[in-house]
Amino acid sequence: MSRPARFTIRAASTLTGINQNTLRAWERRHALVRPERTPKGYRLYSDDDIERLRLIQRALQEGVSIGRVRDYLAAPGVIEQLQRGGPLPQGPLARSSRVVEVSLASAGLNGTTTIRLPAESDAGVGAPLAAFAEQIEQAARCLDRPRLERAFCRAVGLYSLRQAFHQALAPALARVGQRPLADDLDGAPGRLLATFAREKLTAALAGLRPLHQQPRALFACLPGEPHEITLMILSLEVGLEGVSTLYLGGDKPVVAVQQAAEATGSRAVVLSATLPLPQESVLDLRDRLAGLPRRPRLLVGGPAAWNSRGWLQEQGIQVLSLEPAEAGAQVLRAIGPM
Fold this sequence. Notes:
- The chain has 15 helices and ten strands.
- It is α/β, with parallel strands linked by helices.
- It folds into three domains: 6-90, Multidrug-efflux Transporter Regulator, Chain: A, Domain 2 (Orthogonal Bundle), CATH 1.10.1660.10; 129-201, Methyltransferase, Methionine Synthase (B12-binding Domains), Chain A, domain 1, CATH 1.10.1240; 209-335, Cobalamin-binding domain (Rossmann fold).
- The strands form three sheets. Strands 7-6-8-9-10 form a five-stranded parallel beta sheet, sandwiched between helices.
- A hairpin with an 8-residue loop joins strand 4 and strand 5 (112-118).
- The longest helix has 21 residues, at 188-208.
- The termini are close together.
């Protein structure tokens, strides 16, 4: 099932990490992207627009000024090189430089600003996602929310929302969560990062949700299950395919999941379990969903579900793959045609 061809400005911002005001300015002042407009004037960005925005970000990281980006991207071979992520041609439009952030405190002002300096090396350009995972982890360890925000948004901008969640935020969450509480200020870094991840996921799913569409799939952890990373990534996989989703989060009572499914008329309920599977709760929810008018499909994923896949299949409950992309495809098939 392919993604829809058009995205609102909120979705475009979510997918690229670019502020909505910046998107408007790039269109108005520099004509870098020309999204379509609805009859009421709302912007609609295509897949090609999203890709171009990422190329613009790569060019800016290479030191090209915003006023020169349009001509730079029109130069032969530049777009191909940006797409491959290889070394870029240097010339009058792409002078070697770097952008650094400096505090305004010494001037008696709040906040920061950026300045452009000659580049000392190319080490910071196109930093691998593993480096962003390290930056995110360290920001959480320091309880530095602004630094955390910058690292994640840069990962989204230079790569993609999917890659930033998979290869930067999720590894950092896993590592911070494994730290002994005594070493983590009673777990404050883990709580900060988990809250941040939930906020980003909620914003992403809201931005990607097709307009005026009720959630087609609900995602929740089983009762007593607090680990959300796998479920977050899976709900994002489905949301990126243009399917409206509702993320309920960890440790959800069976009744709450049933009520949400009934209220939304969802076609699928997706559960996640990493701890030993609570069989009574699973069967209780299965029976409750069977009594709803739409009879949504019940799917269960996570390591605990995979270890109990024989029992789940005997109960008529579908077991999801441990591989996020395949699990996402299974959910999409369960939902059926839009």
